[in-house]
Amino acid sequence: MFNTFAHSCLLSLHTKKEQAEAIMWFCQKDTGNPEISLATINQYFEAACLPKLNVTRAKTAFAKSKNVCKGSKSGLYKLTLPAVTAFEKEYGYLWETEPQIEDAAGISRTSYLSDEEISQAQKMAQLYMVLHCYENSARKLVELVLYRKLGDNWWEIAANSAQKSKVKSRKETEKKHCWLTPRGDNPLFYIDWADLLSLIRKYEADFLPYIKDIKFVELRFEELERVRNITAHNGFLPNSEDFQRVILSFKDWCRQTTNIQ
User: How far is C-alpha 82 from the chain's CA centre?
Assistant: First the structure.
């Protein structure tokens, strides 16, 4: 459950304080105990492969926060009722019991596929989740850095003509497929992995505080390109080393990149 929560919530939040508050809500929801220590919060950060809280800064932030109050004992904190209500409204669905998508679709009865081939599909679905979070984490970083650098018109300023043309073309194609939900307003969802790397290289000095080493990103992105293509075209990776390579690369990304505060 925590992995699902981390991918759905923690990676979408921008500050350590917001992530800490979300973890406090998860802990209360999961254990029934509304009070939590900073040490326990940091255990959750570690489990999510995210940088830990600076305890001194966290104490200062909590003291100023309208969402957090002190617990019954020294060193314990808890969320205020409005904060709990807000998190429940936003992420409470994760605790709702719904049939798995594969069960609802009847995947086990797929025509022409053997049990082994269906098992392979289930394994690839797990890999897709990692790649999905990996790529969208990269997109989010690019968006936030360029927004800080260039302001509201960051896309018009940063993107080259080929990237803008690609986004325009793909959006026009979407308009013809009205039964499908659009990818969204963010142009970064319409460009390719290589385009993200191009934008990072273009504004290397602005990304360095958050990535520390541009070569790190270049190597990871290039290494993942083949795996992404196979996954995107519903292929299967028979070698478990490919899975481990993606998992290790994702963990490296989470450890190497710094959340924008």
Answer: 25
What token pair was written down for 123?
């394994």
84 neighbors 23 (Cβ within 8 angstroms)? no
How many other CB atoms are found less than 10 A from the CB of residue 140? 17
- Nearest Cα to Cα of residue 68 among 27, 123, 97: 27
Question: What does the block give as tokens for 227?
Answer: 């795996």
pTM: 0.58
Burial class (CB in 10 A: 0-12, 13-18, 19+), 190: buried
Whole-angstrom distance, CA of residue 10 vs CA of residue 254: 12
* Spatial CB neighbours of 3, under 8 Å, sequence gap ≥ 6: none
pLDDT by residue for the chain (261 residues), tens only, comes to 777 777 767 777 778 888 899 999 998 888 889 999 999 999 988 888 888 889 899 999 999 999 999 988 899 999 999 999 998 888 887 776 555 666 667 777 888 888 888 887 878 888 888 888 888 899 999 999 999 999 999 999 999 999 999 999 988 887 776 655 556 678 998 998 889 999 999 999 999 999 989 898 888 888 777 777 777 666 677 666 777 888 888 888 888 887 765
Listed in sequence order, the residues at least 6 apart from 73 whose beta carbon sits closer than 8 Å to its beta carbon are 35
- Decide if 145 contacts 206 (C-beta within 8 A): yes
Q: Nearest to residue 25, comparing CAs of 91, 106, 112?
A: 91
Phi, psi angle pair for 26, to nearest 5°: -60, -45
Q: Under a CB-based contact definition with an 8 Å cutoff, are residues 196 and 142 in contact? A: yes
